[in-house]
Amino acid sequence: FSDMSLILETTILGFKIAKERRISLLNYLSENNIDAVLYSNSDPYLVPDVTYRGSVDYFGELPVVFRESMINLNISLPIIKSGIPLRIWDVLSAGGFLLTDFRPEIPFYFENKKELCYYETKEELLSLCEYYLSHDSKRSKIAETGLECVLKYHTYKERLKSLLSGVEPLL
Questions:
Q1: Which residues of the chain have pLDDT under 50?
Q2: Up-side HSE of residue 135: CA atoms within 13 Å toward CB?
Q3: Element (H, E) at 73
């Protein structure tokens, strides 16, 4: 708590900016005839043309939502500059199709348009939504390949093997 400006920037302002960005993108999609459903405990009036379903149980219901949704959006917190957001792992490990904003580490772990899809602009987000909503088999194949990738390379067991292989030469 020694740097109050950093705390303010990374918490209050960071979450406020993320919320505004998510609202803006969801409204943009709905203005362009993309039917979106929102599972959240946020106020539904902020995205009036999006179907609001409230919050769901993280461990029981959310994996089902991810698996059964045509497209799952990940809109990362802009204050997080590196790393893979947990939502990416959640969606892919549930067998869902994921459309996420670009993060520099994603290409090290996943192939774009093979295991997940990423966008860099709101126009690209819209274009990808339109494309994958009308190409069921391609969307399903990407979701299937994403799940296979997670199960093959990104389980706790595989992560521990990788970690330990880096430590062994030091022993």
A1: none
A2: 13
A3: strand 72-74
First-to-last C-alpha distance (Å) of the chain: 38
**CA nearest neighbour of 25 among 134, 124, 142:** 124
Structure tokens at 155: 């389980």
Question: In which residue are the tokens 């698996």 written?
Answer: 67
Distance CA 38, CA 41 (A): 9
CA distance 160 to 165: 8
Q: What is the pLDDT of residue 77?
A: 82
| 3-class DSSP string for 108-136 | HHCCECCCEEEECCHHHHHHHHHHHHCCH
- What angle in degrees, to the nearest 10, is found between the helix axes of 136-153 and 86-93? 110
Listed residue (43, 45, 69) closest to 55, CA to CA: 43
**Rounded-to-integer distance, Cα 65 and Cα 77, Å:** 21
Sheet with 117-119: list strands edge to edge: 72-74, 98-101, 117-119
Where is 10: in which H helix or E strand? none
Q: Which two structure tokens, joined as six digits, stand for 66?
A: 């991810």
3-state secondary structure of 98: strand
